[in-house]
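Morning run. Coffee first, then this:
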Amino acid sequence: MDKLLHKYNSPIPRYTSYPTVPFWYSLEGKRKWVDAFNEKFLIENKNGISLYIHLPFCESLCTYCGCNKKITTNHSVEDVYIEAVLKEWKLYRSAMDETPLIREVHLGGGTPTFFSPENLKILLDGIFQTSVTHQDYEFSIEGHPNNTTVAHLKKLNELGFTRISFGVQDNDVNVQKIINRIQPFENVKRATNEARENGFTSVNFDLIYGLPVQTTESIKRTVEQCISLQPDRFAFYSYAHVPWTSKAQRLFNENDLPSPHEKMELYKTGKLSFTRSGYVDIGMDHFALPTDNLHKAWKQSELHRNFMGYTTKKTNMLIGLGVSAISDVGNAFAQNDKLLHNYYQHINNNELAAVKGYFLNEEEIAFRKYILDISCTGKATFQSNHFNTLKQHTFPRLDELEADGLIEWNEQGLTATETGRHFIRNICNAFDLHYLQQEKSKEHQYSRAI
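And here it is:
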């Protein structure tokens, strides 16, 4: 295994999209994006659409974080931001020829629970009052254990939210000091218990391995403490050290970061604790109890993946609202401006804030499906009309992956082996035509696979 880890520990994407964001380009005008959105909306709305709402504010900076965020303790920013998001929603509504049927909502950040319960209700009411909720819906939020209150939980549950994800990351005090996220385990326990007492039926914990000064002993303590609370799911993410894009990571002494071998030992330590405690490895960093819907969807090959992560609700349209949010209509992507000032300026000018995106051709749509199928099921079935491209770019990579015991394949399709499930990103990478063909260095575009 160590030889494979060294061989495949290269900088490659996480494949929340294909083509990946570095290959997107400026959306001159936006008319083409609006037309693509409108065309797909008419097709997809009957099955329901997904909404991702980005709430970027945090009261303090976590130095490991690569998300788009705005640090402030001034809560007056809530009103201005909510007004802008609702105006953006109104702009999208004007491009819809019928009332939207919402199947999935996710509030991400930043720290969504930075916002008061009352303001979250204003935001969500503004959306729900101009839409219809699908009978099979799922609403979720990312919560910070330090500031998620009973009032938050009650209000959100009244609005239909039953899933919450707590960013735990690590319970070790030494690690918390370095990453500037002091979060006593008692707060995690309190927030988890209060969520369950107030109608939340699915609780996820986010943990990170590969952080500065983590050890196998400390990660084992963190994982086992968290398991004692029996969350329904875990996301066990590899720390992505990308100081060229996340400047706060430059505050780390890189000598405190684990080597690739040490990092894999951290992962294996965590995984062993999860699986011994009854959690099932879903793939791509996720573990779930057999009773959880994520596991059931994985078992039935009904798992779906988009910019919100793994989901059990398969929708083919995702609308992203808020600064830096990404929208996906199946054959096109669009990302809002990453700068808050610019985002406000677009919205105040009564125009969508989408400034960057990508329109996929027929071949890219097919290869996107291969990547989605592999990341969700560990399998892919090949289409004969793209055989020449597969033969030229992908099949040589599959030969190598099979020789290393990561997949079994023939010209009809492939299946990841048990070992290969540790290397899903690498298997997906064999279908990334843009990555395979690019000439410039990938070192400062993506985090390493391990």
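Residues 23-342+348-357 form a domain with the pyruvate-formate lyase- activating enzyme fold (CATH 3.80.30.20). Good start to the day.
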